[in-house]
Amino acid sequence: MTGPGDGDPQTAGEQSASRRGRFGRWRDQAVALGWLVLVWNLLWGDINWANLVSGLLVGSAVLVFFPLPAVTFGGRLRPRAMLAFAGRFAVELVSASLHVARIAVQPGYRPRGAIIAVQLRVRTDLNLALTAEAVSLVPGTLILEVDRESATLYLHVLDTHGPPDLAAARDRTLAVERRIVRAVGSAAELRRVETDPAEKGTSP
After folding, report:
1. Is 0.70 topped by the overall pTM?
2. What values do phi and psi take at 156, rounded to 5?
3. Which pLDDT score, from 0 to 100, does residue 204 have?
4. Would you give the distance in Å from CA 80 to the centre of its chain?
């Protein structure tokens, strides 16, 4: 004897969609927690067991007590691209730190800053948040404002001498976005950043 809905393809499909939805939410939470732990360790400047554990606790507390709007993760994790992103980020972090340190100790030198707007090519909340975090962690660059509707980052860039420096800062931001999408983006997002030069950034 079968109950109502037993063997019904529509009911089975709804149950399967519900399971996928729950898995998707757990996956999104896990990705968000992983990035929070990474940012926590980068802010401390040292990756060790104490910072990993405290990062897990702080990240979990943030997700539980200060829930953000749901961010759908429709991409895929690519370990090789993630390693490439981490390696390039470490190189840029050291290079920018040395540059800022040189400015700080150079007698009588007053660096000139500028504000630029960079429109990202992938307009998802996840890409916007990850790119903004990665860019702002590099010394010499500060996120001033984020326009969610147009996926535009407004950055203050330290030590600029003219249009070529502004163009270079914008290109670095788009390169960060490209590496992030290569690491965690979907196939459609990856095609977008690889084919669209996105010559839309402005430098007020």
Report:
1. no
2. -100, 125
3. 40
4. 17
